[in-house]
Amino acid sequence: MPDSSTPYRGRFAPSPTGPLHLGSLIAALASCLDARAQQGSWLVRMDDLDPPREEPGAADSILQSLRCHALHWDEDILYQSHRSSSYQKALDTLQAKGLLFVCDCPRTQLDANGNCSGGCRCRQTDITGPAALRVRLPKGSIIHFTDQLQGQQTLASGLPINDFVVRRKDDLYAYQLAVVVDDAAQGINHVVRGSDLLDTTAKQVFLQQQLGYPTPAYRHLPVITNSLGQKFSKQTHARPLDNDVAADNLRLALSFLNQPDPPPGPLQPAEILSFAINHWQRDQIPARAAIDAAAIGVT
Ligand code: GLU
């Protein structure tokens, strides 16, 4: 947990897999308001380390939507695609600590939690073809952290997580590694993001401990779901935000976060933002994993 005298540094870290939608606006807005209400800095980082999943033009379209919603970031944007040497250094540290193993097992040998139950561990020196690098959690390790909204979280090695990928078989650095290296490099001490990432956070805490990085304060927001209970995302065909009705989008996102309603009438996005910063009540955000969009009148 960061010391309360340290200036607040938060961030929004979209993956450029498609345009911003209401779900990603909620995460951007909450992370920005939480930072601004505490006179903190709010950064944007582009999680563009997975080219096969990316959509051309999505990074610029996300940034344009943020601007239209008066979500103006501090400092230069960090692009993960430019950060390979930092990720490699972190891998070297993990390697030197004996925490990595090479895995060329097919997907069919992974269990439901993504642990490798294949035979790669006995063939380490023989593996020469394409292979992932996995971190092994030492037997009996227990990782605790307290999420500021969702409460105490614990991960014990054994079940459900024994190991996880830090560099993929296609040689791309994995999200778990990159997010930890970048949060530390940018001095991020507060992470506000969707609860879909809550389960992976203990892996990140484990990596922070191994790499000697501080652990930020985490606050995982409920995600917005459609009528089928699916999280809004590109895969579930969430509608891209219409930047022409940015003020209405912000009102909806604030209502989802259970924040006071801005005054009625035609306000500009910047006026809504300023009201929301002044009235931000982080303890009013529902401590739930998911909320149906219908609850705020979105169908
Ligand atoms: N890029 C990730 C996503 O869009 C979020 C990463 C994070 O906030 O840690 O789901």
Low-confidence runs = none
The helix/strand class is: alpha/beta
Mean pLDDT across the residues is 94
Bound molecules: glutamic acid
Percent in strands: 15-25%
Give a quick summary of the entry:
With 299 residues, the protein is an alpha/beta fold.
What do you see in this structure?
The protein is α/β, with parallel strands linked by helices and 299 residues long. It has two domains: 9-81 and 188-296, HUPs (Rossmann fold); 84-167, 3-Layer(aba) Sandwich (Rossmann fold). 29% of the residues lie in helices and 18% in strands. It is built from seven helices and twelve strands. It has a three-stranded parallel β-sheet with strand order 1-2-3. A three-stranded antiparallel β-sheet has the order 4-5-8. The protein has a two-stranded antiparallel sheet with strand order 6-7. The longest helix has 16 residues, at 22-37. The structure holds glutamic acid.
What brief labels describe this structure?
299 residues, alpha/beta, Rossmann fold, 2 domains, three-stranded parallel sheet, 7 helices, binds glutamic acid
Question: Strands, helices and their partners?
Answer:
Layout: E1 9-12, H1 22-37, E2 41-46, H2 58-68, E3 78-79, H3 84-96, E4 100-103, E5 132-136, E6 142-147, E7 151-156, E8 163-167, H4 175-185, E9 190-194, H5 198-211, E10 217-221, E11 223-225, H6 246-256, H7 269-278, E12 290-292
Parallel strand pairs: 1-2, 2-3, 9-10, 11-12
Antiparallel strand pairs: 4-5, 5-8, 6-7
Helix pairs in contact: 1-6, 1-7, 4-5, 6-7
Glutamic acid binds next to loops.
